[in-house]
Amino acid sequence: MNTNRILGSIARLVRAQWLGLLAVMLVLSGGAAYAAVAKDSVVSKSIKNGQVKMVDLKDGAVTGAKVADDTLTGDDIDESSLDVTVSDASKLGGLPASAFARSTVYKTEATTDAGTALGDGTFAKAMACNAGDILLSGGPASIANTSEVLESFPTPGSTTSWSVRIDKNAQTDNFTVVILCLDQA
After folding, report:
1. For 129-143, what is each residue's pLDDT tens digit?
2. Which of 3, 58, 132, 139 is 20 to 30 A from residue 82's alpha carbon, by CA?
3. Does residue 53 sit within a domain?
4. How much of the chain, in percent, has pLDDT values that exceed 70?
């Protein structure tokens, strides 16, 4: 057998099939696939978790579209970019908290008497806040233990008056209506 002839055959084979042989050698040697990486680029595999810092990022590289929804909080948010302007957290609508407590609550009550007799044997009484004020609550007072409260509610059609209807059970009973109002003056 001629050694030069064998070596010549191998050389021709290598020249003709060099790319295929390279692939076979990479696979047999356990090599990984080769991927081209642009100059000055880093692949994710090369970065240790948590090691990319702000100084490592190009300005404008991270945009809102690249951040997961509902993940930014506190100092991460530029409040001026929000639809709501918060110029002073101690104020609401430009008014301090004391401006919302500018009204006072007062209690007033009707005179204590028998009330108005209704045709069904019951008696009614109503009491209203001062004009322009707001009714907060109300109810009967000074009712004898022999009487029953049948109704106690804001007067229909009114936002300032409270009505009470009682059944005196054929007894004498003077009663009153007490209300709480919000002074709007």
Report:
1. 999 899 999 999 999
2. 58
3. no
4. 73
d(CA 159, CA 135): 6
Q: What is the 3-state secondary structure (H, E, C) of 46-94?
A: HCCCCCCCHHHCCCCCCCHHHCCCCCCCHHHCCHHHCCCCCCCCCEECC
Separation CA 143–CA 149 (nearest Å): 8
174 close to 134: Cβ distance less than 8 angstroms: no
Kindly state whether residue 173 falls inside one of the protein's structural domains.
yes
Rounded average pLDDT over 84-104: 67
> What gap in Å lies between CA 106 and CA 129, rounded to an integer?
9
| Whole-structure pTM value | 0.47
Identify the domain containing residue 157 by its residue range. Answer: 104-183
Task: Count the domains in the chain.
Answer: 1
pLDDT at res. 26: 65
Q: Is 42 part of a structural domain of the chain?
A: no
Rounded-to-integer distance, Cα 145 and Cα 127, Å? 22
pLDDT digits (tens, 9 = 90+) for 140-167: 999 999 999 999 999 998 889 999 999 9
Separation CA 167–CA 29 (nearest Å): 103
Instruction: Answer positive or negative: Cα dihedral of 57, 62, 66, 68.
Output: positive
